Amino acid sequence: MHASHAGWSRPPPVRKAGWTAGFVALCLGQFLAHQTSLIFSVLIPVLTSEWRISASQAGVILGAFQLGTLGAYVGVGFLLDRIRSKPIMVWSAALVAAGDLLFALFARNFASGLTIRLIVGIVYGGLYLPALKQIAQTIPLDRRGTATGIYVGTIVVAYAVPLYYMGVLAPRFGWRPTMVAVAAVELLGALVLAWKVPSVPLPAALQRLGPSRYVGDVLGNRSARRVILAYTGHNWELFGMWGWLTPFMVQVLLARGGGNTEALARGGLLAAWAIGLGGGIGAVLGGRLSDRLGRAETAMLMLGASMVCSAVFGWLFSAPLILLITIALLYGIVSLADSPSYSASLMEVDLTKAAQIGPTAQWGWAFVLLALGPLAGLIALGPLRARRADLPAVARTGGHTGSGAG
């Protein structure tokens, strides 16, 4: 996050004491502000009926959120070289809360739901990257890897927990009042970030970084382009799996004779376990393996495993529930375990709905589409494996463990 060229100032030294409270506030505020990420996927079974929309339209709304976040990442990355990370996080959290409130009050159909979720996705993109910069600027070097891992784990839990409580609360109190409560929680997250997270001055040299330099440094770096391509493929699969896992589990339980309320609650719980527990294990496992095996090697190993999971998971619609849950947990682990090497987002639409085929084939082909992401990542990272042996030991590991959720 700082310039290494001659004449550029070094980042300010980090005090070894006094950073803990700010880091705890960062994790807490980010946890509260990240509630919205997968909420719409829980509501798909409800809204497809209430709004009379198809599964494909629901997929478009789900993907619009991720597309908005993806676009925002590009802009936020540019802004972080010019604006302190704290105000970006605070305003993003507040705007996410406002967006979810608007969704609760005014989303009535496909068009309004799509528009509001796209806007929420855009402002949501201002949360994650500034937090990584905040950690780099405020955490001592010898604690930075651990701190990053804790932060990533916190975000994964923030993704998973709403899958359960939304499935429980929405049928009892209605999805609109529940979304209002979610907006209040996210606003609390903005207040925590504003109150306790320290504000780090921006180095003067970074303020002079021009757009041509910002774009040229990326486009002119072949290895960086390969990592970005692999990172994009990773997120095609990751966010697709995260977004579709809850409605998939709900449909599985409905097909086995469960009631709507029970299926929504239990489906959300199963998805939360697969994403939260699996993702937490995957983040730790991926971080450790990336230090031992190398970044590209670990990413390729996990991409291969997750590609297999994507190729087979949807076809298990009618399989024994215990087998399905076991594979879902494994899927949750391997789909996130390459995140210590990169991060981003995805858009996925159910292309088989119009084909009038059974639910097993519909979900099977839907998840097979996600396998295209890790396949692209494997192709992109292949040439980077051979280069690792030629690098110094420190360069192979990056100096410390780095992580990212999504």
Describe the structure.
With 406 residues, the protein is mostly helical. The chain has 2 domains: 17-197, MFS general substrate transporter like domains (Growth Hormone, Chain: A, Up-down Bundle); 218-384, Growth Hormone, Chain: A, CATH 1.20.1250. It has 16 helices and no strands. It has helices at residues 20-33, 39-50, 55-79, 85-106, 110-124, 128-138, 141-173, 175-196, 211-219, 222-255, 260-293, 295-313, 321-336, 359-370, 372-388, 393-397. Helix 1 (20-33) runs antiparallel to helix 8, helix 3 (55-79) packs parallel to helix 5 (110-124) and helix 11 crosses helix 13 (321-336). The longest helix has 34 residues, at 222-255. The protein is globular, with a radius of gyration of 21 Å. It starts with 19 loop residues before the first helix and ends in a 9-residue tail after the last helix. Residues 1-11, 340-349, 351-355 and 391-404 have low confidence and may be disordered.
Question: Summary?
Answer:
With 406 residues, the chain is mostly helical. It is built from 16 helices and no strands. The protein has helices at residues 20-33, 39-50, 55-79, 85-106, 110-124, 128-138, 141-173, 175-196, 211-219, 222-255, 260-293, 295-313, 321-336, 359-370, 372-388, 393-397.
User: How many angstroms does the end-to-end distance come to?
Assistant: 19 Å
Q: Helicity, in percent?
A: over 70%
Biggest sheet character: none
- Reading the helices and strands in chain order gives HHHHHHHHHHHHHHHH
Q: Structural class from helices and strands?
A: mainly alpha
Report the portion of residues in β strands. Answer: under 5%
Count up the domains: 2
CATH topology of the largest domain: Growth Hormone, Chain: A
Query: Low-confidence parts lasting 5 or more residues at pLDDT below 50?
Result: 1-11, 340-349, 351-355, 391-404
**How many individual β-strands?**
0
The geometry reads as globular
Rounded Rg: 21 Å
Report the top-level CATH class of the largest domain.
Mainly Alpha
Q: In the CATH hierarchy, what is the superfamily of the largest domain?
A: MFS general substrate transporter like domains
CATH architecture title of the largest domain: Up-down Bundle
The number of helical runs is 16
Please state the average pLDDT score: 76
